[in-house]
Every structure is written in C-alpha cells, then in structure tokens.
Amino acid sequence: MKRFAFVLTSILLLFTASSAFVAAKVVSTENNVTVSADEVIDDDLFIGAESVDIDGTVNGDVFVGAGMVDVLGTVNGNLVVAGGTVNVTGNIGGALVVFGGTINVSDSEVKNSLLLFGGDVSTDSQTVVGNSLVLGAGNARIDGTVGNSVVGGSGLLSLGAEVGKDVTVGVGQLTLNKAANVKGDVVYVSDQEADVDSGALVSGDVTQTIPESHNKSAENTFRDFSRRAAAGYVVWSFLSLLLVGAVLMYFGRAMVEGTAGVLEHNLLKSLLVGFLAMLVFGPLFLALLITVIGIQLAFILLTVFGLLVFLSKFFVAILVGRWICNVFSFKNVNYFVSFGIGLLVIVVVGTMPYVGFASTALVVLSGLGAFLLRSYESYRNVSKSADNVGHEDMSAKEPTTY
User: Which residues form the signal peptide (predicted)?
Assistant: First the structure.
C-alpha cells in the first residue's frame, strides 16, 4: 500500500510540475498526515501517505492515496480516496468516490453522488446521500437515505435504506431489511430469490432476472472463466482510467473540456483529421527510423502520439457523459460524475463483440482529431496575438529625422 500511495502521489506531482499555475496543496510522506480539527485549508488538497486523518475543514477538492484513511471533518468539495481501510464520518459538499478494501461511511452527509468500490462496504442509518449511490463490492450493507437511485453489483447486498428512486443491482444474494423503503422499482439479477422482510416497503415492482444455468463441462467452465476474466478486465480498466481521468480533469479541465467542445461542434471534421493523422503517422515514423539520425526523434514522436491516443478517450467521455445526462434529464450532475458515466460507457461498449473495435476506433479518431484541431486553433490565436503586438510596437516608434 505504501507503493500505491507513492505512485498516486507521483502522478499528482507530475501534473503539478507541468501545470504550475494551478494552486493546490500537495503532501507526500511515508508517515501519517493529519488535518487537525481546528485547521481550515482554503485550497485543494492532494495527499499520499501511510495513513491520513482529516479532522478539520477543507474548502476544496481532496484526493487521497493511503493505507488507512479516516475522514471526520468537512470537505466542501469532492473527495476521492484510494486506500486499504477507509472510514468516512464527516460531511462532503460534493461527490464521494472511494476505492478500498474495507469502506465504512457513517453519520455522514454527501451532497452529491456516492461511489463505493471495495471488498466490504457499508453505510449506516445516519448517512444521507443527496444523489445516487453506485456500488461495486464483495459484501455490502447499505442503510441511511439515498436521494436518487442505487445502481451496481455485490456478492451479498443487505439494503435497509430509504431510496428515492429505483434499485438496479446484480447480486449473489439480495436482502431487503425492515428499514428498507424504495420509492421506485427493485430490479435484480441473481440465482437466489431476494429475502424481503415483511416490514420492507417497495412502491414499485420487485423483478428478478435469473442468469442462465451453467453446464459444468470443461468447455462451459472455460467459457465461464473467460467471461469473469473479461468482466474483471472491464472493472480494472474503468477504475484505473477513472483515477487517471480524475487527476487529468482537475489539472487540465480547461484543456479537456475545450477539446470536448471542439468535438461537439466539429465531429465529422475531428474524425477526418484523426484519420489523416493515423495515415501520416506510420510512414513518418518509418521514415525517421530509416534515416538512423532520426531514430531518437522517431521514438519521441511515437511516445507523444501514443499519449494522445490514450488521452483521446477522456475527451470523448466528457461529451458522452453530457449527452447521457441530457437524454435522461439528470440535473445538477457533478462534472466528475458525468465524466465517469461517459467513461464507463466507452469502456463497456469497447469490450462488446462486433461493435467493440469500431467504437474504439471512432473514439480514438474523433478524440485525436479534436485535440489536433484545438491545438492548431490555439497556435493560430497565439500567432495572431504576437503579430498584433509586433505591429503595435512598430507603429509606436516615431520616424527618425535627419
């Protein structure tokens, strides 16, 4: 876990070094980091440490990577945590996103959405979530109040919360406790019928979908393993991209959203430019490689081009997330949550048979083209500004008389 914390912090510091104009407080240490109860930080906070205690108030977004994380104070922004054991007993002004082994959220108010991905996950009866709860866990107990929907999957899910809309989950075993009060439908995928307490309230329908039974032959066992491996890859890919995307969205939000804006208004042009860039890159790389003296430049070009291809999905995710939120009339959705929705769609569709390759190609070409178009436009603006300054300087000079 130490290594993970320092890897996370290194990423943060790298972006900090390349974006010096961004004001943020970054802390990296092998020891404990504590924000005391009487401390107020009027800034965004990035921490990588062995353990972290946040008892005070942070007026900004907080990103934490540590083995043990305890949050008892107030974060008036988004809180993103990756840790072994994470305990949150405080108020979060934005969204709360947690990746961990054991996650406990108690006596907390989360103004926006709550996203929990871990081995053992729980929220207590005093916890209030203003928007939706997204869940990915081995075992989960969800109590308290959720203003919108509950979506996700868990091996064992015990639900005793008041849910403002629907519950849609894939589970091994679903239990609705007597405190459960679901204002919409309960839709679940499971081999086992849900255990519904007589005191549980569901305003809509309770619908079970039973997965197809598996023949335990060697062929089907292998197929089952392949499916699980593919599902695991999708989850790993999404979570790793989401973590990198969170950092990129914070430090380079203007660049990412600006490129998404170009993509939104010039989709076909972006696709064409991206396609042409792909056509040009191969011959150019080989030409530099053949010249021998251009080998170093060739590999620099390869690195930069590979980075742009990797970043292209983040530009498209912004646009896809906005489109989905508009189609389903999701209002006041945090930009990070919207980005996460778009990224999840791209990752899932990219793994589908038949359409996966085509969708990935479209994402890469359009995202790459939009970035190149925006870079060219920025270059033209800078050149025009420099020319205007030059003309003003020339006109300001008085003619010399003899």
Answer: 1-22
Torsion of CA 192, 197, 200, 206, to 10 degrees: 30
Q: What gap in Å lies between CA 99 and CA 239, rounded to an integer?
A: 9
Q: Which domain holds residue 14?
A: 1-110
CA distances from 147 to 77, 109, 171, 189 (A): 19, 11, 22, 23
Which of 110, 143, 165 is where one domain is finished? 110
Q: Are residues 59 and 161 in the same domain?
A: no
Q: In terms of C-beta density within 10 A (0-12 exposed, 13-18 middle, 19 or more buried), how is residue 320 classed?
A: buried
pTM, rounded to two decimals: 0.55
Euclidean distance between CA atoms 317 and 341, whole angstroms: 8
Token pair 């430090």 in the structure block, residue: 251
| Exposure on the CB side of residue 392, measured as CA atoms within 13 A | 6
272 in the same domain as 153 = no
> Last residue of a domain, which of 217, 250, 272?
217
Terminal-to-terminal C-alpha distance of the chain: 78
pLDDT digit string, tens, across residues 178-232: 999 999 999 999 888 999 999 999 999 999 988 765 444 555 665 666 666 666 6
Residues with Cβ < 8 Å from 171, sequence gap 6 or more?
A: 153, 154, 155, 156, 157, 188, 189, 190
DSSP 39-95: -EE-S-EEEEEEEEEE-SEESS-EEEEEEEEEE-SEESS-EEEEEEEEEE-SEESS-
Neighbouring residues of 336: CB distance < 8 A, sequence distance ≥ 6: 78, 94, 95, 97, 246, 249
How many structural domains does the chain have?
3
CA distances to 10, 29, 49, 74, 382 from 86, rounded to whole Å, are: 21, 18, 13, 15, 46
The full DSSP string for 218-256 is HHHHHHHHHHHHHHHHHHHHHHHHHHHHHHHHHHTHHHH
